[in-house]
Design goal:
The chain contains 6 helices and no strands. The longest helix has 33 residues, at 53-85. The chain is flat and about 55 Å long. Helix 4 packs antiparallel against helix 5 (53-85) and helix 5 (53-85) packs across helix 6. The chain has a domain at 57-131. The N and C termini lie far apart (46 Å). By secondary structure, it is mostly helical. It has helices spanning 2-6, 11-33, 35-39, 43-51, 53-85, 92-114.
Length: 140
């Protein structure tokens, strides 16, 4: 919608821009992620090893911003869907708040279940359960 209205692009050019810039932004991380099985290290650990402490910290910060944006979009679309499912009896704001609280409860329960000390299941997403190939210190 922004292509034709904001940038005066036709449909074909808008689609080509979407495909081109998606490929440009996805191919480098996908290429770097292919090193994971060969080295046995995760992507963010590889970034810390290859770039050093501060550049890897910037990559981690940008990763957090990406997830905040993704979750904001997801919560907004979920709130709008709840509003439409209730035949507009519920406002978008209430729907967004409901979806946010439900997401927080579900993710909190999942994380606490995966990271409990007495549970034998250890997730790679759990920071407490994660083992690093080297001690994560500032001197590297």
């Amino acid at each position: 919608m922004l292509g034709p209205s904001l940038f005066a692009l036709d449909l074909k050019t808008s689609i080509l821009c979407i495909i081109f810039f998606t490929a440009i932004s996805c191919i480098p991380p996908a290429y770097c992620a292919m090193n994971g099985p060969r080295t046995g290290m995760r992507q963010m650990v590889q970034a810390r090893y290859a770039l050093g402490y501060w550049p890897a910290l910037i990559c981690g910060f940008l990763n957090c911003l990406q997830f905040i944006g993704f979750m904001s979009l997801t919560v907004i679309l979920g709130g709008q869907s709840l509003s439409l499912a209730s035949k507009s009896e519920m406002s978008w704001t209430v729907g967004i708040i409901v979806v946010s609280i439900m997401s927080l409860l579900v993710s909190g329960q999942t994380t606490s279940t995966m990271c409990s000390a007495d549970d034998s299941f250890h997730s790679s997403a759990c920071v407490r359960c994660t083992t690093f190939p080297w001690p994560p210190s500032r001197s590297s």
